[in-house]
Amino acid sequence: MRVGRGSEGDRIELETAAPGREPRQDRSRATRRRLLEAAVECLSEVGFSGATVGAVARRAGVSRGAAQHHFPTREDLLTAALLHMSENRLAELRRRAADLPDGGARTGAVVEMLIDAYTGPEFSAALQLWAAAASDPGLRSHVIPLEEHVGREAHRAAVELLGADETVPGVREAVQATLDLARGLGLASLLTDDERRRRRVVGQWTRMLHQALTTH
Fold this sequence. Notes:
Blueprint: E1 2-5, E2 11-14, H1 24-50, H2 53-60, H3 64-70, H4 74-95, H5 103-117, H6 120-134, H7 137-162, H8 171-189, H9 195-214
Antiparallel strand pairs: 1-2
């Protein structure tokens, strides 16, 4: 750190990238990332009521003031966490695209990938936030536009992965139904683990989807 003078002669601190010291901007990004990850963990493990700003800050290893510097309100923090995990999930889907097979096997692989995206602690955290928003108008005003954005991005990613031509009648609806199916199966898996039933449903839907994608 070195000291200089501003236009009015006031002393100001200028950040330098001293060896062994993380620049302030990098520290800020790291703190923000820890808060987002901690918020997802809190939502998934203790639910909306337990995911307070203080609880998230403690889990992230930062002060409450630092948390509120990045996210002034609890709604800001939790909806940012939902966006963060959704973006990570979609980025992972796109990273796996290069390994997808061709033809009918690709359709099945994409369906499985989309279903996998709606499982795990990230999806559980999202459910906690959705459930809380249903009875909290203030939170709902944050969550609805975010969910609309996430839904559009998920649909766009599914179209890319499937190589779908949405100018063909019925294809857009088939892609959206795939996402709705994935979300529904993810919700069902939180309560029961009926793998045999799931395989039959996914197999049948994959055949119907592939037909919709290849019929012109």
